[in-house]
Design goal:
By secondary structure, the protein is an alpha/beta fold. The protein contains twelve helices and 21 strands. The protein starts with 9 loop residues before the first strand and ends in a 16-residue tail after the last helix.
């Protein structure tokens, strides 16, 4: 079947974050009649608060060799980026044990290979969607500057730098003076930096998801504001999707609901160690400084992104209930760190945001058919790289729906690997 030729088949995508939107668009390109359903609007979950980075440099997983002994200090120091309420620590222990095992050197290499297999096709998959929707101006390709204020952190990054280079990622190491010449707003404490020229950024993650969703509707897709409650099962055929407004009977279901995919996958008999890793950010609408590119502080664990509506400073990995209230102590920490990095930063009028990233302990998403349900495809668990690999995930979902061999080996992402 040619791409775009109507097939008569219907698909329902659960979740209108950037992964769900891109999956819906690629299913539409395969000729399916697509309905996209979400309890809120496109991009209003984790996508909205994303730091916006798009680059193959994100092949490095979260768990690295030697990280486990650092966890107690990370948990006890309120200035550190890891936060787990004591009431949740026992329940999260199995997850962190899996996370620690994923940090063994051989596993890190395997996970980096798998993540790279997705990230290396980032622009190849995004470009057709950006072109057909007119969203090209929402992507800038200016690179990313990772800065260091302590020489020990710079020395300790050698393994990560080498891991990236082994994957063909271009890296330029530079002095603190060179970094300040590139970004004059940086303070005097920066002693070294690493420039990654091939990292791009979206200047507004929420608007990117919205523009792509508008294109889906313009081309005949349906967008529904409903809350998915679960599934009805029949002796034959795919499950029906039950929402607070209707019962839907599509030929194909795609589960791309981020953190909220976990209970729905469990209804399908697939129990996955998916955690709500909540990220926080501050948006400074009138920062008083101009940055050319994204800045990532290795010492302070803060990502700073210039966007069309201000300067975004992101940090924190808080493992708790996805809908728990925002903890203002975390955003206070981010503000202090941002001011230390950029002494002239204007923080007036800042807005605070928190949202859950869907994170699996091996830093890889699940992509592929649900075990026992060939007409249900999983596409969730993308942790920090959801916006970067949304389009290639969507392309893979489209290929699976069309019965074609996927353009990326999906074995590392299979849902039954745990």
């Amino acid at each position: 079947m040619a791409v775009g030729q109507p097939s008569g088949r219907t698909a329902l995508v659960i979740g209108a974050g950037i992964v769900g939107v891109c999956s819906a668009l690629y299913l539409q390109r395969e000729g399916l009649r697509v309905t996209l359903v979400d309890r809120a609007g496109p991009g209003t979950g984790a996508t909205e608060g994303n730091a916006g980075n798009l680059g193959v440099a994100s092949c490095v997983p979260a768990s690295l060799p030697g990280m486990l002994p650092k966890v107690p200090r990370l948990l006890l120091d309120p200035e550190e980026p890891l936060s787990v309420p004591w009431t949740k620590l026992a329940a999260m222990t199995p997850w962190f044990l899996r996370f620690a095992l994923a940090g063994r050197r051989q596993r890190v290499e395997e996970i980096a290979d798998a993540r790279y297999s997705l990230l290396s096709k980032l622009f190849e998959a995004y470009d057709p969607l950006l072109s057909q929707s007119g969203a090209e101006t929402l992507i800038r390709r200016d690179g990313l500057l990772q800065i260091f204020e302590d020489a020990k952190y710079l020395a300790g990054s050698k393994y990560v730098i080498d891991l990236r280079r082994r994957h063909g990622i271009r890296i330029q190491e530079m002095s603190g003076d060179d970094a300040r010449e590139m970004e004059p707003a940086l303070g005097p404490g920066v002693v070294g930096a690493v420039f990654l020229p091939d990292v791009a950024v979206t200047v507004n993650p929420l608007r990117l998801a919205q523009v792509l969703a508008e294109d889906l509707v313009r081309r005949g897709g349906t967008l529904l504001s409903e809350t998915v409650k679960g599934f009805e099962f029949a002796t034959e055929g795919p499950p029906r999707v039950v929402t607070d407004g209707a019962t839907h009977a599509p030929d194909l279901i795609v589960l791309a609901a981020g953190t909220w995919s976990k209970p729905l996958a469990a209804q399908l008999g697939c129990r996955l160690p998916l955690a709500a890793e909540r990220g926080y950010n501050l948006m400074f609408p009138d920062p008083g400084i101009q940055l050319r590119m994204c800045i990532n502080s290795r010492d302070r664990h803060v990502a700073v992104t210039p966007m069309e509506h201000g300067l975004r400073c992101s940090s924190i990995a808080e493992f708790t209930d996805p809908d728990a209230p925002l903890n203002p102590a975390h955003t206070d920490v981010i503000e202090r760190k941002a001011k230390a990095l950029f002494p002239t930063l204007n923080t007036e009028g800042a807005t605070r945001w928190v949202g859950p990233r869907p994170s699996l302990p091996d830093s890889k998403p699940v992509i592929g058919p649900a075990p026992g349900h060939p007409n249900v495809l999983f596409a969730f668990g993308h942790d920090h790289i959801g916006i970067a690999v949304a389009a290639i995930t969507g392309k893979l979902i489209g290929e699976l729906a069309a019965g074609r061999p996927p353009s990326v080996d999906l074995m590392p992402f299979r849902p039954d690997r745990f």
